[in-house]
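W.,

You were right to be curious about this one. When I first looked at the sequence I had no strong expectations either way, so I just let the prediction run and decided to look at it fresh. Below is the sequence, 202 residues in total, followed by the output.
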Amino acid sequence: MEDRVPFGDILGEEAIPERRPRMEIEPLDLGADVRAVGFELIDPETREPVIAAEAAVIWAATLRTLAGSKPWTLDFFAHLERVREFCRLRGIAFREPNSHVLVIDAPALEHLDALLERFAGETFGVRSGGTAISGDATLESSLAERGVDAYHAAFTRYLFCGVCDFENGFFTLLSERLWASEVIRLVRPAVADFRVDVVRPA
């Protein structure tokens, strides 16, 4: 596998305009009983995923914007010892509803950036609205058994559930209330400071 080079200094004055990262957002067909929106964050020239710190700040802004004023969480269900240690070292509050799931409630922005960068190589989840903060024993038990597949039966109870695969540049949003057009309208201004082109593929 060839080495991936982080996308340049997106925030700095020396960013290369012609290499603006692109976030492609479009509806996904995951079956008749699921409404989904796919996000892909890429270098438009190579179609390689945008990675590292440059990607983390973009994804952080995206997640916070999608959640808006609703409560939201990050759900981890693999390599929990690494996540636990990372949180303890940085004073990030977390809870463990069972022995196989670790939940972080609405992390502060500086913590969110760090979490998304550090654990980009993991697949983890996010949910907003509903009982995200107060706890959802049914979903959290299912996450322990089925991982992200557990969101399939639960997403209708939330504003959205999402699957984060940031190492590969992907985010999959499951929601009955957020359409692709609405998501683009929300996300475009939220990531404007990072000079990201937010588009719906033709």
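Here's what jumped out at me. The helical segments are 52-67, 80-90, 109-118, 137-146, 180-190. And, maybe more interesting for your project: The radius of gyration is 16 Å.

Coffee later to discuss?

I.
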